[in-house]
Amino acid sequence: MKVLLTADIHYGNYEDYNITPNARINQFYKLADRYVEIGRENDCKEIWVAGDFLRVPEGSNRVNHGLKKFLKIISEGFDEVKYILGQHDLSTKSTEQSIEDTIISIFDFDNFHYMNKKIVEYGLGKIAFMNWSPDQDVSWIEDKVQVFIGHYTKSDLFGQDIDESKFDIMFHGDIHNDQEIGKFISISNPIQHDMNSISDGSVIILDTDTGDWRRVKVDPDHSRFLRLHYVTEPHLQGFQDDLNYNIYKPNKVVTAKGASADLPQWKDIETLIRNIIKEEDFESIHSEVSAKCVNYSEIDFDFQLIEVRIRGYRSLVEFHATFEPNDLVVLLGKNGSGKSSILNGIRAIWDRSSHIKNERSEFCNWVDVTITLSYQNKIYEITKGDDVLFKIDGETQSRNTKPELEAYMRECLPFMNYVDLLFITSNVNNLAVQFTPDRRIELISKFYRLDRIDAYSQTGGKLREEVIQKIIPIRDKLMGVKGSLDTIETRLMELDDYKDLDELSLKNEYEELINLRESKIKYDNWLQEIEKAKSSINQQKSTLDLYKSKLEVNVDELKDNLISVERQINDNKAKIEDLLQKDRRLFSLKEKESIIKQKGIDMGNYVETLKEGKCEVCGSRLADGDAHSLIESKTKILEHYRSEYLDILKELEEFSDEEKSLGYFKKNKLIIENANSELSHARDFIKGKIDQYVIAKEAYNIELDRLKNYEDKLESILSQRLEEVILPPDLNDRLSDLISKITKIQMYHAELEKKKEKSIEYDKLDKEIKELNDLSQKYLDYSALMSRTGRVYGEILTKLAEAFSEDDIKYECRTWTWRGKLNRSFNALYKVKGNYRVYERLSDGQKTVCDLDFLSKLFSVRVGILALDEHLKALDEENLPKAADILNNMNVNTILVATHDRNFTPYTKRFLLELDESGKTIYTIN
After folding, report:
1. Cα-based angle 664, 666, 668 (whole degrees, multiple of 5)
2. What is the pLDDT of residue 740?
3. Which has fewest Cβ within 10 Å: 308, 354, 373, 848?
4. Is 244 helix (H, G, I), strand (E, B) or coil?
5. Region for residue 10 given its phi and psi (left: phi exceeds 0; alpha: psi -120 to 50; beta: otherwise)
């Protein structure tokens, strides 16, 4: 399978060098399409991004929406996207990284795969992926891989520490060129971002089956993406066409008299830097700085003021002016006529403050200042006052807040940050007040395109700060270890009396005393066991005596008595049953007697009725035959009743009169039952006695056996006779003293071991801090070397001073130390009566000439505007022509001079201003 490798895309909204609004950010969508095109041409199924999707970790909402579009094109153009993160993608610079440290993961599409510290296998073998990391720790790779995809800083002289044994070849991002150093292959940036990245970027096509790879240029015919170039001719600056922008980098300085002098060029500066770096032994540091150099911007000051409109500002009710290239405009008028108001109104567009609306004219209810200018092929219109408006090519720009809109203006028009350079106010007598020595050097750096040197110094400082940040936790740890060592040392001093004691002899003595105490304990326990056994025997004998007393009863007699009582109970039960039977029989006979008697009476009455010949039921007369038959039948029944009744009476005679009396049987039954109740109590008592005897007998036998066991045990204990042990009276004190000494000896040796471990740790941390401090000092020295007071600038400024110098004005670069701090100035000397006088001792008029000469030399790069508000007021008849000559030859598109001196005659356009009777400014243009 073939894959497309890319890195260092650096997606972002680049506000400079745009041929049309957003042209550079739109390039990234073309780049995404170009990736897809290259992928199809080379049969690449996947694209692998080796870090730095982004220019900065967190962009504006507009940039983030564009990023989503860019990533979507890539997602749809490849089967799979594998990616790692570079330092520009991550909001953290720590080794501890999370997918939440980047915005890229928010836009993850289904076929996007985050590959940090992952390994995949293909035909050629294993391929590992890892994010950018400050320490490049690859210990997580257990077995060697064939290919490593990373984001790694590497140059001919410098490389981050990495274990090269973990891989055969590494394709990496971070280096914006197509270098190949040993097994380290830089993927290269795809398109140019600035002068610190190559213009003909490329990608790599890798065959994962064979390991073969080759480069493919992203824009081989230069038909797609912008490229930047340095030029030495000012008229060549700017867009040559849609895809080529020239940055003017002067190679000569032209004096006011038309003479010229060579300026140091980058090839000369690079040679100078290389030589100084080598002399100062900063080669490896410089290589690292070059690889990690911070972004820097070479500001284009070349804009053209087109139109100014001021309404309702101070005395200006309505002011309107248009401008042409190379205009030198003079504002003439008396004091208070409105000259400064015009310049201040224009300057207010540059300022961040909103003071315009506080300067509303007393003649108007509104106030606004509008300027129109062209810059890098676009027309910009800015209005400030009651409202703030910003237009690009007629399209109004909007932001959430005015400060955000103000910031956006400065992104689009970076020269706005140099208002103090472009507008010299009336209260500035000389530029020494406005432009300090450091400020002068900064402006020289900016206009002579020395920004890279500042970037080197800034990067050195940044790297130093990173080292300092590394030192802080190590120092904290070191202080913790130092505190531990101090604590250990204190403990060792406290335990010093014990360091020479013999621990072994103390332990032996302690062991002897412990054994003696244990022998004493055994002896005491032996005595206690004897006493316990004797006590158990005595107690057991008492228990046997108790049970023995319970066996002193005549159990046979008790059993006989129990039999006799139970017999009486049974006899009484038989008597009660006999009484109950008699009672039931008597009751039954009496009941039958009553029934039969009644039946006999009833039947006798029936027979009598029949004898009368009538029916007993209805009383009607019966037939003689029927009556006779019934009488005969019923008479037989009546006889039977009489016979049965007589038998009952006969049986009743068997009962005595007493027995027939009421309650006889019940009373006798109760008497017998009471007797049986007493007999039952007697029986239970006898049974209890017998049971107690049986239980006591069984328990007695058990306790007798137990007594035997106790006696046997006592005999056994007595057979293990121990010798009496007598303990020394101070045993516990001696044991306590010994254990204390042994413990403190052990503590002393433990503290010694801790001291050894902590000392090793301390030495390691101290060495690490010293190494980092040495590195920090190297970065500091390097940063100082590249600073505006450093040697590199010193030699360049010295050459510039020579180039700037003419017969009447000479320049010097002077370096001195004040209160331990290095200082540098770039100053002018003015020729007075044949002698050069230092700037600080000149008259105001002479200083003004020097100031203008410095500005004219400074403006090697063309500048859009220079406004001088009464800055020429100190010039006399001798110096005014010099100043005018300098202004006439100054490399500025529009020069505005406010003065009330009508002797100032050089101009292309003149505004005559005065106040009318009401105090409003009126003007004429000629």
Report:
1. 70
2. 92
3. 354
4. strand
5. left
Class of domain 304-448+788-925: alpha beta
Tell me how many degrees the CA angle 659-662-663 measures, rounded to the nearest 5.
85
How far apart CA 895 and CA 331 sit, in angstroms, is 11
CA distance 915 to 923: 9
> Is-contact 218 38, C-beta < 8 A?
yes
pTM value is 0.58
Q: For residue 68, what pLDDT is reported?
A: 94
Q: Tokens 């930047």 correspond to what residue?
A: 228
> Does 447 have pLDDT greater than 90?
no
Task: Label each residue of 403-427 as H, E or C.
Answer: HHHHHHHHHHCHHHHHHHHHEECCC
pLDDT at 622: 65
pLDDT of 391 > 80? The answer is yes
Q: Which two tokens stand for residue 917?
A: 């009777």
The H or E element spanning position 719 is helix 664-719
**Residue type at 149?**
I
Residues constituting the chain: 926
Residues facing 319 on adjacent strands: 310
Residue 694 CB burial class (10 angstroms; 0-12, 13-18, ≥19): exposed
What homologous superfamily does CATH list for 2-227? Answer: Metallo-dependent phosphatases (3.60.21.10)
What count of Cα atoms within 13 Å lies in the side-chain half-sphere of residue 912? Answer: 6
Indicate if the pLDDT at residue 873 is higher than 90. Answer: no
pLDDT at position 20 is: 84
Q: Is 291 exposed, middle or buried (0-12, 13-18, 19+ CB in 10 A)?
A: buried
Indicate if the pLDDT at residue 188 is higher than 90.
Answer: yes
Each residue's pLDDT tens digit, 612-642: 776 666 666 767 677 788 888 888 888 898 8
- Mean pLDDT (the chain) is 87
Q: What is the mean pLDDT of residues 520-548?
A: 87
Q: In which region does residue 580 sit, left (phi positive, over 0), alpha (psi from -120 to 50) or beta (all else)?
A: alpha
Residue type, 522: K
**Angstrom distance (rounded) from CA 330 to CA 924:** 12
Q: What pLDDT digit, counting tens, does each position of 373-387 carry?
A: 999 888 999 999 988
Tell me how far apart the terminal alpha carbons of the chain are, to the nearest angstrom: 75
pLDDT digits (tens, 9 = 90+) for 60-104: 888 899 999 999 999 999 999 999 999 889 888 778 888 888 989
What pLDDT band is residue 269 in, cutting at 50, 70 and 90? confident
Count of other CB atoms within 10 angstroms of residue 732: 12
User: Does domain 584-690 correspond to CATH entry 3.40.50.1100?
Assistant: no
- Residue 327 pairs in a beta bridge with 894
**Residue of 287, 441, 447, 444 lying closest to 822 (CA atoms):** 441
DSSP, res 840:
G
3-state secondary structure of 725: coil
Confirm whether 304-448+788-925 and 584-690 share one CATH topology.
no
Instruction: Name which residue leads in pLDDT, 447 or 252.
Output: 447
Identify the sign of the CA torsion 157, 163, 169, 175: negative
Q: Two tokens at 80?
A: 């799979």
Show me where the domains of the chain are located. Answer: 2-227, 231-291, 304-448+788-925, 462-494+736-786, 584-690
- Helix, strand, coil percentages (3-state) for the chain, rounded to 5, are 50, 20, 30
Q: In whole angstroms, what is the distance from residue 910 CA to residue 915 CA?
A: 17
Residue 683 CA to residue 566 CA, distance in Å, equals 7
Biggest CA pair distance of the chain: 205
Q: Are 744 and 495 in contact (CB under 8 A)?
A: yes
Residue whose token pair is 């153009």: 77
The DSSP element (H or E) to which 739 belongs, if any, is: helix 731-786
Residue 548 confidence class, pLDDT cut points 50, 70, 90: confident
Check if the beta carbon of residue 296 is closer than 8 Å to that of residue 876.
Answer: no
